[in-house]
Amino acid sequence: MVPRTALLTTSTNRIKLAATYNPTSTTLYIDQIYNDIRELAHGGFGTVYKATLRTTGKKYAIKKFMEDKSALDKWMEVKNNEKVGDHLYCTHYFGAWKQMKDIYMCLQLSQMSLHDFVKDNPFQEMLLWDVLHDVGQALHYLHVDKKYVHHDIKSKNILIHGNFFKLADFGLMEDFSKYPMMMSLSKNGPGDIFALAEAVSYSVTEGLYRQGS
């Protein structure tokens, strides 16, 4: 049976199915379009792969959702990534597709998470200021410009991309402009600022532990 592939409808029409895709082939779309596919992470959300686009050699992160995650949850995460749009301090979303029962998202590839970085590197105070600045800019953009609250700020969702830290994983993001009471309680996005403080606190603690302090 030929595995059917469909681009998930996007309001921005960011991508189209690759011109090199052969819909009559039994080879999965991801294997036709990408090569050098390697698993980066696996968890309750699904699996994230590092993959190279065959036509350009550019590398991307491909997220494949777990099969037992509800279709609504998968769709909401795709839509949330669309809503974020383009921002220097937010992980870039390129598009998503569905093949058979599986849904995939194509995302900007980063080096590693803050969580993994502090495990293997000595504590640096300037790094923490950079995290606060970069993720603070991302939250200001989400809260003030977009009226969204992230709801899942943690060191695993702060990614290192070159000289920047980028906020990632918008699956739990919510539009808090729909809740006037929530907006009146905090114009900075209720919960996110405290969660950022906890993520930075984790980084300090882990960094000091690694130094034997």
Automatic annotation (TrEMBL):
One Pfam family recorded for the sequence: Pkinase
Q: Which residue positions does the secretion signal occupy?
A: none
Q: Which UniProt keywords apply?
A: ATP-binding, Cell cycle, Kinase, Magnesium, Metal-binding, Nucleotide-binding, Serine/threonine-protein kinase, Transferase
Q: What is one cellular component GO term in this UniProt entry?
A: cytoplasm
Domain Protein kinase, by residue range, is 34-213
- Which example biological process does GO assign this protein? meiotic cell cycle
Q: What does it catalyze?
A: L-threonyl-[protein] + ATP = O-phospho-L-threonyl-[protein] + ADP + H(+); L-seryl-[protein] + ATP = O-phospho-L-seryl-[protein] + ADP + H(+)
Asked if the record carries the keyword Kinase, the reply is: yes
Per its UniProt entry, which superkingdom is the organism in? Answer: Eukaryota
What the entry lists under PANTHER family is as follows: EUKARYOTIC TRANSLATION INITIATION FACTOR 2-ALPHA KINASE EIF2-ALPHA KINASE -RELATED (PTHR11042), MEMBRANE-ASSOCIATED TYROSINE- AND THREONINE-SPECIFIC CDC2-INHIBITORY KINASE (PTHR11042:SF183)
Know the name of this protein? Answer: non-specific serine/threonine protein kinase
Organism of provenance:
Diabrotica virgifera virgifera (western corn rootworm)
